[in-house]
Amino acid sequence: MAELIDGKRISKEIKDELKAEAEKFKAEGREATLAVILVGDDPASAVYVNNKKKACEYIGIRSLSYELPKETTEEELLALIDKLNNDDSVNGILVQLPVPDHIDENKIIRSISPSKDVDGFHPLNVGALLIGEKGFVSCTPAGVIQLLKRSNVDIEGKECVVVGRSNIVGKPMGVLLLRENGTVTIAHSRTKDLKTICKRADILVVAVGKPKMINAEYVKEGAVVIDVGIHRMDNGKLCGDVDFDSVEPIVSKITPVPGGVGPMTIAMLMDNCISSLR
Q1: pTM of this prediction?
Q2: Which one of the listed residues 15, 52, 171, 220 is annotated catalytic?
Q3: pLDDT in tens, the chain (278 residues)
Q4: Is residue 271 one of the residues assigned to a domain?
Q5: Is 146 part of the annotated catalytic residue set?
Q6: For a surface tag, which of 71, 204, 234, 244 has the fewest beta carbons within 10 Å of its beta carbon?
Q7: Residue 82's CATH number
Q8: 97 in the same domain as 65
Q9: How many domains does the chain have?
């Protein structure tokens, strides 16, 4: 039976460390401030924003909330971002995605100052990651690295396979594993003979966006499996991109869904906010 990698416990550990750090900075008269912008009334986005506010409150990060109507124009949103870019008291700016269809998501991402882009989505931060320079790192892949390290998984020299090539998870995940001296293959839904490639992996990170796609046929015995996906099934239960029931008996460690990667994303967002004071 596999060891469950407990994202809730590890994220709490990180948040407690950040809380102590925030208190130290406050004693020096410095405080981190995160501005969160939500456009529209998407229920899932509202839940995410609320969770981010709670995490800020727990750690001691001041949060500013801007909940804008769905009809907000692109120009109005850009004007708010510009104002926050020029506000020296604000360390981080986050626009909750997705934004309504009439707003250009790429333009919004690029309008946030790279020094306040705590999501790590700005092209300058992505480029910095690629060439090994300092910058904000996309929160979910950064969280996966922490899950592995804090679960005593040695990445160096290991065969690492990432299934998925999104700008937010797959691509930065590959770079971060390389940075830890893993040998990395990035595969995706159109990869030929995907099962054979996945079965080589000592560490398999799945972010393909298809419920329960990766079953026992894709996984090597004793591998470590990180499931980034999250989907709601018809019965209301959540599942990941990995068929947990078939994979769990043959691997050494695996993340559950929920309670695996999810809590880490917010913990690493908080880490990005605090890191601007370091």
Answers
A1: 0.96
A2: 52
A3: 899 999 999 999 999 999 999 999 999 999 999 999 999 998 889 999 999 999 999 999 999 999 999 999 999 999 999 999 999 999 999 999 999 999 999 999 999 999 999 999 999 999 999 999 999 999 999 999 999 999 999 999 999 999 999 999 999 999 999 999 999 999 998 999 999 999 999 999 999 999 999 999 999 999 999 999 999 999 989 999 999 999 999 999 999 999 999 999 999 999 999 998 99
A4: no
A5: no
A6: 234
A7: 3.40.50.10860
A8: yes
A9: 2
Distance CA 98, CA 96 (A): 6
Q: Is 261 left (phi over 0), alpha (psi -120 to 50) or beta?
A: alpha
pLDDT tens-digit profile of 107-162?
999 999 999 999 999 999 999 999 999 999 999 999 999 999 999 999 999 999 99
Which of 96, 158, 202, 241 is catalytic? The answer is 96
Cα angle value 169/174/179 (rounded, 5°): 125
Residues 46 and 80 in one domain: yes
Judgement on whether residues 144 and 255 belong to the same structural domain of the protein: yes
Residue 226 lies in a domain: yes
* Residue-range definition of the domain harbouring residue 47: 29-116
Residue 178 lies in a domain: yes
With beta carbons less than 8 A apart as the criterion, state whether 42 and 36 touch. Answer: no
Q: Are residues 62 and 102 in the same domain?
A: yes
Judge whether 52 counts as a catalytic residue. yes
Phi, psi of 89 (to 5 degrees): -80, -10
Of the residues 6, 116, 117, 119, which is catalytic?
119
Respond yes or no on whether the N-terminal peptide bond of residue 69 is cis (omega within 30° of 0).
Answer: no
To the query of whether residue 119 is one of the catalytic residues in this protein, the response is yes
Does residue 127 belong to any structural domain of this protein?
no
The per-residue pLDDT for range 97-114, each reduced to its tens digit, is 999 999 999 999 999 999
Domain with 184 in it: what CATH number?
Answer: 3.40.50.720
